[in-house]
Please model this.
Amino acid sequence: MAAIAETVASPAGRDPRNRALVRGWLYVVLAVLVALVMVGGATRMTGSGLSITEWKPIHGVVPPLNDAEWQEEFAKYQQIPQYQQINKDMTLGEFKHIFWWEWAHRILARGVGFLVALPLAFFWLAGRLERGLKPRLVGLLALGALQGAIGWWMVASGLVERVSVSQYRLATHLTMACVIVVAVAYIARGLATYSQGPAIRSVQRFAGILVLMVLVQIYLGGLVAGLHAGLTYNTWPLMDGAVIPGDLFAIEPAWRNLFENPKTVQFIHRMFAYAVLAAALWHAVATSQALPGSTHARRAWVLVAMVVVQATIGVATLLMQAPIDVALTHQFVALLVLIFATAHWRGTKGAYELPSQAALAG
Model:
């Protein structure tokens, strides 16, 4: 009788195993997403993002296979302002180099779509998904489709009048990628097993605020990248010889400086980095006081350490004028901070409640 009662309470023992399988799958998705964002960063830094001038979701999977196809692809690139104003001396061999970066970024993005869709269909049809997970996972697919459209919207901004993509669209594309990273990490950690119960409400709320602040900082970093703002004012802690430099609002109307003035954008990115660090430190101290010795407090302090490391890499990137290896490291650690902040947030709330037998049947 005790065994029967245990079976009813813990859905035939299947649910923990199913959760582990789904969680493992989502961790794989998360790793590939990080790789995708990193390839996207390398694509931007190598000036490769406009090398493919058409959006062909199906036919575009196949790269040029012979010299005639390469010449055709190169001829399309030669029609856009980036080639005509910046790369007019580019050879076909040099074009192939930038083409492969953009092609790899696109094919990896398509691969993520299949990596989500096919296992999702399997888990769903095999009855291994809890009812509450289904809309969340379908939502991931929808976000991925939206991100694909945003990616082309971004590329299109650099094909007619500009020699690079719009910083507005670049920052939006990067931030949406990070929103998807947050969603995957949050769902995966909701399926984990925790040794300690949820934290108090105030700790949960502020952990969520920290995730939002990291996302905002990444958006600001996207603006910096889109404006190449990290290549100027390469001093720290002063900027242009002052704590608060002049000419921050030289463009009219004033709000445009927040998005279009490289000096202002870099200054805001710096200041908000300090705000993220201060908030993380405050959260760690408050959590340690409210829940001394808890895993929540320990995670909060780990997050502080990660933010300090990221800030240090950011300063190095600035002082060295953004060499590609250091700049990509800065981007990679930003993703690690975001993922850990998300895991910490989910950890303060605990795992998703186990479904009832009826919910499993649905």
Summary: Residues 92-125 form the longest helix (34 residues).
